Amino acid sequence: MKHSKDQQALTSIEHGCFDTAALQDELARALEEDRKYKLTDSMKKRAIHTAASYDEFKNLVACADLKPVSQRELRSFSSSDRSTNLAYRAQTKSNRKLKGKSTPLASLVASVDTPPVTAVDFCRQWRRHLKSAQDRYRYLEITTAERLASIFKSDIDADLLAQIVQVLLINLQSVEETNGNATARANAARFSLEVLHALSY
C-alpha cells in the first residue's frame, strides 16, 4: 500500500504535478524514524553497560524515545484537580478565580466531614488534615467501625493502628477527666471496643 502511494507520488512528479503535501508527509515520517533510530541506538550503547539483565536492557531500549518527566509535571500529575477535559479545566479555573481563596478551606471541611470510601482516602485525611486527637476521634466517629472494617478488611498499617489506639485512649481519658457521666464513659468505651474489634479481623 505504501509502495503504491510512493509510486503515485513519483508518477505525479513525472507528469508535471508536484505534490508538496505528500513530500512533506514523507519527510516528516523519515525525520521521526531517524530521531527514534538515533535515540534507540544511543540507549542501546548506554544500557549495555548499565543493565543487569536482558529484560532490563530490553525495557530501557523500549523506553528510549520517551520524554523524561520533570518535577513540575510530577507535581501537577499528583494534584487533585487534574483533568483531560480541556473545557472542564478552563471552567474550573474560572470558577476558582471567582471563588477566591475560600475554595480550599471549603473543600477541606467537606472532605473531613465526609466518610472515606477507601483506605487511601482515610489515610490521606488522617495524615494530612487531621492533626489533633479530637479531630481524629471525630473522623473515626464519622467513618464508623463498620466502615473501618470494610475499608481495612485486607490489611492495616501498624503505625496507623497505633495512632488510632492512641486517639481512642486519649478520648477515654478526656471523658473520664472532664465528665463524670457514666453514659458518656460507656459510649466512649463501647465505640473504642467496636473500632478495635473492626480492625482486628
Automatic annotation (TrEMBL):
BP-aspect Gene Ontology terms: determination of left/right symmetry; epithelial cilium movement involved in extracellular fluid movement; inner dynein arm assembly
Segments forming domain RNA-polymerase II-associated protein 3-like C-terminal: 115-200
InterPro entries for this protein: CC103, Dynein_attach_N, RPAP3-like_C
Entry annotated with the keyword Cytoplasm: yes
Gene Ontology CC: one annotated term: motile cilium
Subcellular location: Cell projection, Cilium, Flagellum; Cytoplasm
Keywords: Cell projection, Cilium, Cilium biogenesis/degradation, Cytoplasm, Flagellum
Superkingdom of the organism of origin: Eukaryota
UniProt domain Dynein attachment factor N-terminal: residue ranges: 19-85
Keyword Cytoplasm: yes
Main location: other
PANTHER family according to UniProt: COILED-COIL DOMAIN-CONTAINING PROTEIN 103
Family: Belongs to the DNAAF19/PR46b family.
Role of this protein: Dynein-attachment factor required for cilia motility.
Complexes and interactors: Homodimer.
Protein name, per record: Dynein attachment factor N-terminal domain-containing protein
Species for this entry: Pythium insidiosum
